[in-house]
Amino acid sequence: MSKIVVIEQSELMNIINAIVSSKTDKIIDQVQQLTPLTNNSKYYTRNEVAELCKVSTQTIWEWRRKGIIRPPKTIGRRVLFLKSDIDDVIEKGIIN
Fold it and tell me: For residue 60, what are the contacts with CB-CB under 8 A and spacing of at least 6?
């Protein structure tokens, strides 16, 4: 059985503000984790890595699973690989 709850507009606004503030803080924390440690750092998306290595995104997933490439950073559903990690495995001839 459903119940109808009546609250004042100001109370609803406080609840909404608390939720938005909490989510915003989490997003800010995730973005700060992606802040490059050096000026030369850059991130690639999984599609960019696949294009660079001329393979499918499924192959990128397999390489991640097998430990061939380092685990990426993630924000929500976005997967980002550190450029230097990808460049290192390419330079070593492990991939591509």
Answer: 46, 49, 50, 53, 69
Contact indicator for 81, 49 with CB cutoff of 8 Å: yes
Q: What is the CATH number of the domain that holds 73?
A: 1.10.1660.10
Residues in the chain: 96
Residue 4: inside a domain, yes or no?
no
Domain extent at residue 22: 9-91
Q: pTM for this structure?
A: 0.54
Query: Which amino acid belongs to residue 49?
Result: V
pLDDT tens readout for residues 8-67? 999 999 999 888 888 887 777 676 666 554 445 588 888 889 998 889 999 999 998 998
Question: By the 8 A CB rule, do 68 and 94 touch?
Answer: yes
